[in-house]
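Why does residue order matter? Because the sequence determines the fold. Keep that principle in mind as you read this record.
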Amino acid sequence: MIRLVLAILITTTWPLGLAAEELNLDFSQTKVGNLPKDFSVGFLGRDDPQNPAKWQITETKTPSSLAKENSGNSNLSNHFALKQTSSSFSRGGSPICLFEGEEFRDLDFTVRVRIDGGAFKQLAGIVFRAKDSENFHALMIDAIEKKVMLIKVDEGKQVSTWNTLKEVSISKNEWHTLRVVYKSNQFTCTHNGANINAGSFSDSEQSKGKVGFITFGDTTASFARPKITYKPQIILAQRLIDSIKTKWERVENVQIFARADESEPLRAVGSLAPEQLGEKASEVTEGVIKTTQFGYAKENKTVTVTAPVRDRNGEPVAALKVKMRRFRGQTKKASIVRTMPIVKHIESRMRDVKDLFK
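Structure:
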């Protein structure tokens, strides 16, 4: 559930830190009339099969990237926006468009939103910490009821709703700025640069997720200049790789192979060499998990050992591939013995394979 935190105030100037990265979703790279790459469309509720929701790039007048959050329709110029163009009074729910390129934990997400039409509903906004179109948070503006609202949807059901009590200046055909700043389990929301509430909100049930856009009912709306400032997620598998290099100096390369889902291929999810991340596992590595037999290869000055990694139930769920400088006369058995402390180091940090992806 969304909880209001009055004691702790996180302002919209909350710093993400020196390691933060900025991602501007550039709609100008997509042909007008098309859906941008890395975006998916979904629906919460029941769409109109005769006139389904349609998300596409349009060319329109938008605020510049340097415009103030409360600039409205001043100083507009021709640019590109993502628009939900279909209006249907028979639609019973919300069209949703999600950015699939990344899942975010801590982030600062800012978007220009313009409600373009709607005979019965004029409600649109941004989605964040979304798992899919049935599990997400959304910050929306309502041009008919003149309010800003925050909702949480879990398994297709709206479980929490928060509204501004006082009437807010929200007009159709005018650009508004929606912004959410999320750090850990707390977040603040702003409309045109002003906090929608005196305190922050708190929700620890969804630790990360996608961002996107949402409309409701027969609303048509445009979304422009989406900007995401975030801390890149470093999963446990890669953090373990970094610690291995520090503790075992004779290691020249190390990779962890795992799959988040049985339907996916086995791939490198952690590696000392960044270019090897995502690399598909060899048959030898696949066999190590299936048979729990160690893989071994010797070169002039190095040896490579591939070892099974087990979860807390003793099941082989991943593979560790270690290339290390060998000692003179080092046998296969000795190489495996040298590898086992690294295996135990990994196993001590995980309960099951999913932990490697957190």
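The chain has a mean pLDDT of 91.
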